[in-house]
Amino acid sequence: MSQQLASLESEVGQELLQRKGRRVWLTSAGELLVEHADAVLAELDRAEARLAAFGAGELGQVTIAAFASAITNVVAPAIAALRGSAPGVTVLVRDAEGQESLPMLLDGEIDIAITMHTGHTPTEHRIVWDVLYSEPFDAVLPPGHPLLDRSEVAIADLTAEDWVVPLPGNPCRDVLLAACAAAGFTPRVTHTSDDFTAQAALVAAGVGVALIPRTALRAISGCRGIPVTPDPPHRRVVTATRRGRETHPLLLVVRKALSEISI
């Protein structure tokens, strides 16, 4: 111990202890060093506590990319719930349409992607999927349309219409085209937009018809969707995480909060 003390005194360039017989006490420099040592130990204790909280999924930051209606109906309510159940968890949100979020996920830009699962993703083996919800597409018809007062509409009844659809590459477009093909026709696409509010505005302007997911319709004021019969097209909305990170405590906490939101 005396060698360690001598080494410490040599390192700090100050005498740390005074001795008189068997009595030993701290010098002013020694007291100052102990004060700083206490502060360092307190910081180490705080760091240990924060690391333990991080390991338990109680502290940290998670970045989610999702399309607009999922942000509105799932992500925002989950963040509100986490503020009560896990106040140390910070969720950052990025808007990403269609499959845009998957490259961001695989490149490590985000932690969780919320997207549609089509089952045809080339990087399927690198991703862990969890279903959040499945929802139907409803038909949106322009003012004065002869089918507007119906409680249900068949896609085959819209064969001769102009269509407002998402852009190529958007999985919602793929669902729409597949539903029309199953009804025996190829839609006459005249307008395109990935924004469902914009699609509804174009329909309201009388330029065509559209199929819009039911949750997206909730956020569009004055827009009425008509259920499709007999087999309405659906989209399956999922969370995606990189394989190997799905059991990270922080991601488990956030994924659980997302899964508990009712649609």
From TrEMBL:
**CC per GO annotation:** protein-DNA complex
Keyword set includes Transcription? yes
Show the GO MF annotations. DNA binding; DNA-binding transcription factor activity
Alphabetically sorted, this entry's keywords are: DNA-binding, Transcription, Transcription regulation
Boundaries of every HTH lysR-type domain copy: 1-27
Spell out the Pfam families in the cross-references: HTH_1 (PF00126), LysR_substrate (PF03466)
Q: Would I find Transcription among this entry's keywords?
A: yes
- Member of which family? Belongs to the LysR transcriptional regulatory family.
Q: Tell me what this protein is called.
A: DNA-binding transcriptional regulator, LysR family
What organism does the UniProt record list as the source? Actinokineospora terrae
